[in-house]
């Protein structure tokens, strides 16, 4: 039972992160492979603040949200000056720079060995150290975030960012500010993934740079490609399937050092296959 | 002099990065695909040369085979992936995700087949060095610098003087017009991909010979190359090559002042600043 609840909690955390990726990649059409980095910043913020007893869990979460929104803004700003494909370069760069920071700021982040013993989330004086208790928190957060995501997509702002993906020039011609909308969606997407990162640190109580490297970014991208872009259902189905995949693979007799590359190969094949045969994913709309 | 040694090292590395940047620019300006899987081709080059030399082939023959392998993989990606997607009017984002997928598959296939650890190409002359003034360069480094310059000059000449090169520039300038004048853009794309991927095998193998090879190093090389492409002024082959050399030289010499693990972050920071100051790049052609 605990095993299943742990899986569910992880899937819920990744669902939050997927909504973030979906807003950025699926809806606005800004390609990003730095989602893993922002996810990591959320996790490290909560991890460092609660581990050193500098802040309570809710305060640390708020800090993570703000920091992730700001970082995503800083990432997006130079790319907004230059068009389209260049964002790929900034995004790759941010991911690699963030991994360097997580690895090398040894005093704060614990370096390659990571941070162990992050305390479980403490909400209203209760320690949520059991998956059964944690799942309550993550479900409530996910439900609230999902409602928000759904509302944003149906708001005028949602239509605006959809229009930016379709035709940036037309949006500008209609007198809307593309820059302001992109800044807004970057911050919003940063907050979603920051939320996910904070919960991740609190739930697993151990974080290391390996969980937030470029492979993590690719996993987050694969989740929305498989689940489907631009829908709430897509953001939930993708993480649910892909967080189950490592469990399924671990049953198969594969030598442990080939398991990592093999999993990545599967993700890569999924990216290609979905783009070729079903660009809308399982429950999404056309990319 | 440590500084001179680092500078020489950086310039040599820069030549290899320059070939990546120039071939990437060729592909990008012709096919309009942001071909991140190019880093995968670079990786394939090193591993196929390693595989063939460990099976007893002399190094020069292994490199020639690698060129063929890389050209084939590049043409395959274009023919089986990009052309199919383009036929369906896929937006750039879809092509990009597919390209990323191809990169992930290639890199991890190498890791799964040949282990993710550092591999060394067996060639005794790898450690020979030659002194030029106070600088010492290894044989692979000298070969790398010379071959990269030759490839760069060759690509420039190819694009300027051969009929195929002219056809490529015509397709890059206006695909629609090229289509109706029967220049067959689709076939040109495959040729460009094959040539760009094939020549990549030379710096890919020589860098592997010099530093050993790992499956994921190509990503960092490609990142530097794409930064050079943008910072050098889009579509400008000369700018891309020169900026690559400058960037790589900055990366190695900066280790004197900042610890090595930060050098990529520093390069990237420099890029962000440059993009804010001069978004069109260093060697951008003025509109005529």
* Backbone shape of chain A: globular
Strand element count of chain A: 4
Mean pLDDT over the full residue set of chain B: 88
CATH architecture of chain B: Orthogonal Bundle
Summing up helix and strand content along with how strands pair, one would put the structural category of chain A as: mainly alpha
How is the largest sheet of chain A built, in terms of strand order?
A: 1-4
Query: How much beta of chain B, percentage-wise?
Result: under 5%
Structural Rg of chain A: 18 Å
CATH superfamily of chain B: ABC transporter involved in vitamin B12 uptake, BtuC
Can you count the helices of chain A?
A: 12
Rounded to an integer, what's the Rg of chain B over CA atoms?
19 Å
- CATH fold descriptor of chain B: ABC transporter involved in vitamin B12 uptake, BtuC
Strand proportion of chain A, as a percent range, falls in under 5%
Span of the ends, CA to CA of chain B = 46 Å
Structure summarized in a few sentences:
Chain A is an all-alpha fold and 287 residues long.
3D structure, described in words:
The complex is a heterodimer of chains A (287) and B (288). With 287 residues, chain A is mostly helical. Chain A has one domain. Chain A is 75% helix and 3% strand. In chain A, helix 2 crosses helix 9. The radius of gyration of chain A is 18 Å and the shape is globular. The model of chain A has no long low-confidence stretch (mean pLDDT 88). Chain B has 11 helices and 2 strands. Chain B has a single domain, classed as ABC transporter involved in vitamin B12 uptake, BtuC (Orthogonal Bundle), CATH 1.10.3470.10. In chain B, helix 1 runs parallel beside helix 5 and helix 10 crosses helix 11. Chain B has a two-stranded antiparallel ribbon. Chain B starts with a helix and ends in an 11-residue tail after the last helix. The interface between A and B is large, with 43 and 47 residues.
Q: How does the SSE layout of this entry go?
A:
The complex is a heterodimer of chains A (287) and B (288).
Chain A: H1 2-27, H2 35-51, H3 57-81, H4 86-104, H5 106-109, E1 115-116, E2 122-123, E3 126-127, H6 131-154, H7 156-166, H8 168-173, H9 178-204, E4 206-207, H10 214-227, H11 232-251, H12 256-277
Antiparallel strand pairs in A: 1-4, 2-3
Helix pairs in contact in A: 1-6, 1-9, 1-10, 1-11, 2-3, 2-4, 2-9, 3-4, 3-9, 6-7, 7-9, 10-11, 10-12
Chain B: H1 2-31, H2 38-54, H3 59-87, H4 92-114, E1 129-132, E2 135-138, H5 139-161, H6 163-173, H7 175-180, H8 185-211, H9 217-231, H10 237-253, H11 263-277
Antiparallel strand pairs in B: 1-2
Helix pairs in contact in B: 1-5, 1-8, 1-9, 1-10, 2-3, 2-4, 2-8, 2-9, 3-4, 3-8, 5-6, 5-8, 6-8, 9-10, 9-11, 10-11
